[in-house]
Amino acid sequence: MTQPATSQPVLYSGMQPSADSLHLGNYVGALTNWVKLQNEYDAIFCVVNQHAITSGIDPEQLRTRTLSTAAQYIAAGIDPEKSILYVQSDVPEHAQLAWILGCMTGFGEASRMTQFKDKSQRYGSDKTTVGLFTYPVLMAADILLYQTQQVPVGVDQKQHIELTRNLAERFNSRFGETFTIPEGFIPKANAKVYDLQDPTAKMSKSAPSEAGLLSILDDAKVTTKKVMRAVTDADGEIRYDPEAKPGVSNLLTIFAVLSGRELDDVANEYAGRGYGDLKKGLAEVVDATFTPIRTRTAELLDDRGELTRLLRSGADRARERAAPTLDLVHERIGFPTRADL
C-alpha cells in the first residue's frame, strides 16, 4: 500500500458546511483539538461539502457556507502550509472510491447504521435520500483514500469507523493489501458543552432554538444576549454540580475551557456572587475568544482570491496523495489505471 513520505502518522478529519457559522461545540470538540493534532500528525482536514447535500440543496447557501467553514478552520488555527486543507468536491477521487466501496457494502450492513435509521425515521421514506443511506460509505472513502491511520471522532461516529475498518479489511482480503486499517479515537475532551437553553442537551446546530447556540460568527452583542439569558436555576448558588445545577455547571465549564483555567478556580472566584456576575464574566471570555476568529474569517472572506488559492493548493496536494491509492484500487479490481491509458 502507498504511504506518504512522512514519519508522522496520517490523521484525517472534517466537518460539514451545514450552517452559516460553526458554533462553540465545534470549536471545543473539534477545532481546538485539530490545531494541536496538526503538530503531532501528518494532518489532512476537509470541508466535507458532499456529505452536506444528503438532505436538500440550496446552491448559493452551500457555496457560501463552504467558503465560510474553510475560513473559520484557518482563523481558528489550522495552518494550510502545515496541514492539507481542502474542499471535498474538489477531489473527485472521493466519489470514485466511494462507488467501488459501495459495491462491496451489503445492503443490510448499511441499513444497520444508527444515524441512517434515526434520520430516516425522522424524515420519512419519501424524504430519505440514497445519499443519506450511502453517507457512511463516502465517509469510508474519505478516510481510506489517504491511507489514514488515525481518525478523531465523536461517539456518534464510532459505528461509521467500524464500517470503514470492515470495508478496508474486506478489500484487502479479496484483492491483496491495499488499504491501511484506520483507528478511530475520541480525542481527550477539553470539555463537553451544552445548550444554553437546555443544559441537558449538547450544543448542536440541530437544536430547536438558536438561543442556546453560541455561534463563532455571531456579533458580540448577540452572543452577550444569549449568555445573559442562559438557563440557570432558582437557588442562586454558584457551584459545579452537573446533576443538581446543569445550567450553572455548563456556564462554569465553558468559562474554564475558554479561559484555560481550572474549573474549581472559576467556581471559587464567583462563589457567593450572583449569576449575573458569572454571565457577564463569561460573555467577556467568549467575546475574547471569538472576536479574533471572526475578524480573521472576515479578512479571508473579503479576499476570496487568496482563500480560493489556499483551497486549490490544498486540493492539489490532496489529489497527489489520493491518486496512487485510487490507481492501486483500480489495478486490484481490474480497472485500467492511468498508466494503462
Keywords:
341 residues, Rossmann fold, globular, mainly alpha, 5 strands, single chain, Tyrosyl-Transfer RNA Synthetase, 3-stranded parallel beta sheet, two-stranded parallel ribbon
Task: Write up what this structure looks like.
The protein has 341 residues and is mostly helical. It folds into 2 domains: 10-190 and 304-340, 3-Layer(aba) Sandwich (Rossmann fold); 210-297, Tyrosyl-Transfer RNA Synthetase (Orthogonal Bundle). The protein contains 12 helices and 5 strands. The strands form 2 sheets. Strands 1-2-3 form a 3-stranded parallel sheet. Strand 4 (150-152), helix 7 and strand 5 form a beta-alpha-beta unit. Helix 8 packs antiparallel against helix 11. The radius of gyration is 22 Å and the shape is globular. The two termini are 22 Å apart.
